[in-house]
Amino acid sequence: MALLYTALLGCGLVITYSLLLLLASATFWIIKTEGIEGSYFTFMEFSRLPRAAFKQAVSQAVFVYLLPAVIVANVPASVLLGRLDWRHVAWLAAVAVAWFVLAVWTFHRGLRRYTSASS
Questions:
Q1: Would 11 disulfide with which of 27, 70, 96, 119, CB 3.0-4.6 Å?
Q2: Is the pTM of this model over 0.90?
Q3: Helix H segments across 26-85?
């Protein structure tokens, strides 16, 4: 139980790191990125809410599947509460891998585009 909880927390951290890397990678394309970190904090506000708060199809599609803010905290918590759903565990692991691959790909693509400001 504790090992699964730790692994799911790790998946949540990977998703969080990936989001931060994607936001940081935006600086390769956008000149003025002041305040872009506010998007991260807004995203994390949704992760504090229980999944049951997103009953409408649109909000569930956005915050559970498109931007997986809700599953970052809710799936590990369900393990501790004894309400484990293996579909959610698989979804969290798959989303963590997908977001990480997207973030690293975007960052490397941005690096190839980068030109030094001093040259």
A1: 96
A2: no
A3: 37-47, 57-60, 69-81
Written as six digits, the tokens of 68 are 């997986």
Q: What percent of the chain has pLDDT over 90?
A: 29
Q: Calculate the alpha carbon distances from 118 to 26, 110, 114, 115 in Å.
A: 20, 18, 12, 9
Residue with tokens 């809700």: 70
**Which positions ≥6 away from 13 have C-beta within 8 Å?**
none
Are 99 and 18 in contact, with CB atoms under 8 Å apart?
Answer: yes
Please answer whether residues 1 and 79 qualify as being in contact, where contact means their C-beta atoms are separated by less than 8 angstroms: yes
**What's the CA gap between 29 and 9, in Å, rounded?**
31
Please state, as a whole number, how many other Cβ atoms lie within 10 Å of the Cβ of residue 86. 7
